[in-house]
Amino acid sequence: MIRAKRLKVVGALLTAAFSVYVLLDSFVIERRAAIVTDDASAHFACQTAEPVLEEVCLVPTAAGVGNDAPEETDEETDEETDEETALSLPAGTQTIGSYDDGEIAIALYTFRYADTQVYAADVTLSSAQYLKTAFADSTYGRNVTDKTSEIAREAGALLAVNGDYYGARQSGYVIRNGVLYRDSASDGEMLLIRADGSFEIVSASAASAEELLSDGAWQVLCFGPGLVEDGVIAVEEGEEVGHAKASNPRTAIGMLGEGHYLFLVSDGRTGESEGLSLSELAELMAAMGCREAYNLDGGGSSTMVFLGEVVNNPTTNGKRVSERSVSDIVYVG
User: How many whole angstroms separate alpha carbon 24 and alpha carbon 17?
Assistant: First the structure.
């Protein structure tokens, strides 16, 4: 009888220890798989799907990065293109920053929408090579995290928002700056950013990671859902990610036209800012002119950094303003 009780106690302790280990392995213990050393100046392909530190290969492909479309010479065509890619701003919008070096132009705005403070960056790039991503500590792996502002600083970013927090999941394609790091698919929609800077929202069943890479994938982000597709709102009212609250801090990225993008972050979970639902976020991105728009990680992760400064008020529970550490960012620089 005593031995049986001891065995039960030992069994319970082993079960508890294993459960703790699983939780630590999933959310705490760092698993560093690859250190990123390329300068993202060309489009790369990697020969190994799940890179190991010693095996990471960054081999230039012929695809290259940048906008290869010929320059328009017809004035009427230029006017039509400008009209199609114009950013539409809500009434009461305030300009809070700008940057222009001839290759990258950024105009930063803030406004109120649905009882929420929103921050929007209007970005125009001469080449898609300036639309980049970066890992925390320049390392691909699980539970390797840092604040968005720190990752942005290390990357030399002019503008940055949090990415898809790939490190919190064990599946979902990870293609960053033309390098394939993870080829295991997940459910849901992905954002495909091609080497020419164009956006497309695709499902994991549409193509393998290798096929996307050979087809010119520059970035593949897996969070979702897609918000706007071909100028049409793609989410329904009440649709949410998992069991998330209806109103949240949000991060989204959209394409208005060739070389023209919108980065958007909203505050939330406070008395000053309620936060946005996915449908409100989609409606806003469409109203501002996005032809394609995609939802990135939100909640406490939602952070925008401009010229080294955090411009929004990130919070996890609304009790204090502080950045949540994340695994990756999307940035311009």
Answer: 10
pLDDT one-digit tens code per residue, 3-48: 666 666 656 655 554 444 444 444 455 556 667 765 444 333 333 3
Positive or negative torsion for Cα 44, 46, 51, 53: negative
Mean pLDDT of the chain: 83
pTM of the model: 0.79
What pLDDT does 65 receive?
33
Kindly tell me if the per-residue pLDDT of 235 is higher than 80.
yes
Class of residue 19 by CB neighbours under 10 A (exposed 0-12, middle 13-18, buried 19+):
exposed
State both tokens at 250: 């949000």
Residue 240 has a pLDDT of 74
Q: Which two tokens stand for residue 254?
A: 């959209």
Alpha carbon distances (Å) from 70 to 67, 74, 174, 258: 9, 12, 31, 12
- Dihedral over Cα of 304, 308, 311, 316: its sign: positive
Structure tokens at 15: 């079960």
pLDDT tens column, 111-127: 999 999 999 999 999 99
Q: Distance between the two ends of the chain, CA-based, in angstroms? A: 69
Q: Side-chain half-sphere of 4: how many Cα atoms within 13 Å?
A: 1
Rounded alpha-carbon distances, angstroms, from residue 264 to 44, 135, 161, 206, 295: 28, 20, 8, 27, 10
Can you tell me whether residue 317 is helix, strand or coil? coil
Report yes or no: 88 and 288 within 8 Å, Cβ to Cβ. yes
DSSP string, 183-200: ----SSEEEEEETTS-EE
Kindly tell me the burial class for residue 208, based on how many C-beta atoms sit within 10 Å of its own C-beta (0-12, 13-18, 19 or more).
middle
